[in-house]
Amino acid sequence: MGTDYWKGLVDWIKTVLMNEKMISPDDLDLFHVTDDPVEAATIIADFYKKHVMRTNF
User: Of the four, 4, 15, 18, 39, which is 20 to 30 A from 54 by CA?
Assistant: First the structure.
C-alpha cells in the first residue's frame, strides 16, 4: 500500500536493476503497489484462489 511511499524503490528497481540486467521485465509482475485497499484485497484473494495453501504437517 502506498504508491508515493514505494515510488523511490520501484523507480530504482526499474532503472538500476533492469538496466543492469539483474532482473527481467517479467519480475515486475511479482509485486503490486496500490493506494486502493479494495484492489489490494482483490490481488491477495486472487493469489490464494490460484495457489491453495496446505499445511506441511
Answer: 39
Tell me how far apart the alpha carbons of residues 41 and 15 are, in angstroms, rounded to a whole number. 28
pTM given for the model: 0.72
Q: 24-43: per-residue pLDDT in tens?
A: 999 999 999 999 999 999 99
Counting the structural domains of the chain, the total is 1
In a domain, 27, yes or no: yes
The whole-angstrom distance between residue 38's C-alpha and the CA centroid of its chain comes to 16
DSSP 34: -
